[in-house]
Amino acid sequence: MWRVARSAVSSLRQSRWRLLSTAIPGPCIVHKRGADILHDPWFNKDTGFPLTERDRLGLRGLLPPRVISFEQQYVRFMESYRSLEKNTQGQPNNVVSLAKWRILNRLHDRNETLYYRVLIDNIKDFAPVIYTPTVGLVCQNYSGLFRRPRGMYFSAKDKGEMMSMIYNWPSQQVDMIVLTDGSRILGLGDLGVQGIGIPIGKLDIYVAAAGINPQRILPVMLDVGTNNQKLLEDRLYLGLRQPRLEGEEYLSIVDEFMEAVHARWPKAIVQFEDFQMKWAFETLERYRKRFCMFNDDIQGTAGVALAGLLGTVRAQGLPLTDFANQKIVVVGAGSAGLGVLKMALQAVSRMSGSASDSHFFLLDKDGLITKERKCLDPAAAPFAKSQGEIEGLGLSEGSSLTEVVKKVKPHVLLGLSGVGGIFNEEVLKAMRESDSSKPAIFAMSNPTTNAECTAAEAFKHAGENIVFASGSPFENVDLGNGKIGHVNQANNMYLFPGIGLGSLLCGARIITDEMMQAAARCLASYMTDEEIQRGVLYPSIDCIRDITAEVGAAVLRAAVAEEVAEGHGDVGPRELSHMSKDETVRYVKDNMWYPVYSPLVHEK
Ligand SMILES: NC(=O)c1ccc[n+]([C@@H]2O[C@H](COP(=O)([O-])OP(=O)(O)OC[C@H]3O[C@@H](n4cnc5c(N)ncnc54)[C@H](O)[C@@H]3O)[C@@H](O)[C@H]2O)c1
Ligand SMILES: O=C(O)C[C@H](O)C(=O)O
Ligand SMILES: [Mg+2]
User: Does residue 237 carry a catalytic annotation?
Assistant: First the structure.
């Protein structure tokens, strides 16, 4: 019940959008006392409870006597984190990564305010721990790492119960849900119930980047079984031990979940994450006109890739309209690869007035996709080459990646295949013959081991003149002679927080293609010419809150223009439509939650 009061206080605060976000934190109503408060990570301040608060809340004697300030607690945590880094030096990467994840996870379980503050302030260091790539390792080892639940689990066994189950979630208000069925976790395949780590990591990024109130987030696992034989045989596996539901049975579970969410929180936004391709596309089409939802792998990824692709045009000193002439080879015809091509095509059509995809080449595990392909996937069909388009190049159905790169001489080679190392030495060397003055290599698959190539390999084999981006973080590459090969992180984390936040703050009924395009354009225009010339396509993760505010505002304004914005709290659609661009950014920023200890007031 305390959560009701807390959200009332917070919406009161949120409604005063003209106030600066640095205002003194208002009091927080709490309906519990004593040890129950210490065990609630939302209220717990550990040794930070002032003496008067200890008296008021029945905490006297339950803590060591000295009061430690928030700042001191912060320093203490960071010191223990840094000493862990020092003490684990030289140990295998996986061991170090999991140790870092554990120390952060323990803080998350104990004291959310401190956890989110250290996360926000050190996002560049901590994103690789709580998000990609370590989150992949955590998912792989989830059943062994499991200590306490986080988020909700809806399983095939819960059919018919979801409408009541949703009320088991203790928070009165939920704004943002990330949902997975665990069927395609990063490039690691079907991890069943263990995929819950992905929604948890994505929502941590929502809090850090978009300032979504952590009390209003909900990570969800839809456990419909797994086809991963190893997991089915693992005695520690925590999910349903049955093959995945298919067809109508599967869809009826997702339908029931979506209806239940909508019944309790009609304004909540649902982000679909890491669904295998067939369900990723099908659920997007099924729900996008009925609910406020999007698929991050299809749409978020596309926006980030498009922003990067537009950056590579600028890096060549060409006008953006030249994007229509860029030859782009996309390796991987799954939800992400097809999403990128679809959005790129929309961008070409917007720029040149005609939707020509003649410069796009799409490959999957069977090589170049052409209209000759047997059992051509309908989703890939629009990008399949006709014989006429490729015979002049000496290519044909199923041509290998090396052949395609050698013959096409693409401006951009973009990997979303999930296959580590597929951009091998021969492929990368072939990129030296690219028709671009600054060839681009995007190895976007996650986690690190699944990247199509490493940054060092790309600069070594394709040349120093390339622009490089990867989905998981790599260190910049020392090219010698004082030169640095810049590594960009082309990850959907640059966009999904802003898409969610912008949609939330305007009360979007649905999320349209135009809102996605606006997000991508905003990210694309974020960088200066000087940065682009240095091969820097995306801003540093350090300023993710600023980027998210800009993206959120762009999404919001597009929603208003598309007339899908219904208003948020006491800010109605008319008020939204009268905001200038700067006012919109201000509004978005003022609505970002920021972790500080609020004075706790007990109420029965
Ligand atoms: N950087 C990002 O922001 C981002 C976003 C989304 C997805 N991804 C990554 O992209 C990868 C793919 O995701 P998805 O959802 O599209 O998966 P998917 O399973 O839907 O598609 C994978 C595609 O790769 C193709 N493929 C497999 N082996 C291949 C090979 N040897 N050569 C060429 N193609 C091959 C498959 O045929 C399929 O078309 C994953 O690793 C995921 O982590 C990255
Ligand atoms: O999770 C990520 O890091 C990006 C993307 O959503 C993916 O599936 O790989
Ligand atoms: Mg994903």
Answer: no
Is 70 exceeded by the pLDDT of residue 531? yes
- pLDDT tens-digit series, residues 124-148: 999 999 999 999 999 999 989 999 9
Report CA(273)–ligand 2 centroid distance (Å): 8
pLDDT tens, position by position, 486-525: 999 999 999 999 999 999 999 999 999 999 999 999 999 9
Give yes or no for residue 332 CB within 6 A of ligand 1.
yes
Are 338 and 474 part of one and the same domain? yes
Annotated catalytic residue: which of 202, 267, 407, 589? 202
Which one of 283, 362, 401, 416 would you pick to mutate in the ligand 1 pocket, going by the greatest count of ligand atoms within 8 A of its CB? 416
Distance CA 357, CA 390 (A): 13
SS (H, E, C) 347-402: HHHHHHCCCCCCCEEEEECCEECECCCCCCCCCCHHHCECHHHHHHHCCCCCCCHH
Q: What is the pLDDT of residues 232-260, one digit of tens each?
A: 999 999 999 999 999 999 999 999 999 99
Instruction: Please indicate, yes or no, whether residues 439 and 539 belong to a single structural domain of this protein.
Output: no
Binding residues for (S)-malate: 184, 446, 491
8 A C-beta contact, residue 310 and residue 350: no
Contact 488, 473 (CB under 8 A): no
What is the model's pLDDT at position 352? 78
Q: Are residues 374 and 418 in the same domain?
A: yes
Candidate list 81, 115, 116, 131, residue with the active-site label = 131
Say how far apart CA 563 and CA 577 lie, in whole Å: 10
What is the per-residue pLDDT for 12?
34
Instruction: List the binding residues.
Output: 184, 273-274, 297, 446, 491
| ipTM metric | 0.99
Is 476 found in the same domain as 349? yes
- Edge-to-edge strands of the sheet including 176-180? 152-155, 217-223, 176-180, 269-272, 293-295
Domain span holding position 354: 300-493
Model confidence pLDDT, tens digit, residues 294-310: 999 999 999 999 999 99
User: If you take atom 32 of ligand 1, which residue's CA is the nearest one?
Assistant: 365
Ligand nearest to the CA of 373: 1
**Both 241 and 255 in a single domain?**
yes
Query: Given the DSSP bridges, would you call strands 293-295 and 328-331 parallel, antiparallel or unpaired?
Result: unpaired
User: In the structure, what pLDDT confidence band is assigned to residue 23 with cuts at 50, 70 and 90?
Assistant: low
- Residue 116 among the catalytic residues: no
Q: Give pTM, 2 decimals.
A: 0.95
The protein residue with its alpha carbon nearest to ligand 2, atom 9, reads 186
How many folded domains does the chain comprise?
Answer: 3
Annotated binding site for a divalent metal cation: 273-274, 297
Cβ(204) to ligand 2 under 6 A?
Answer: no
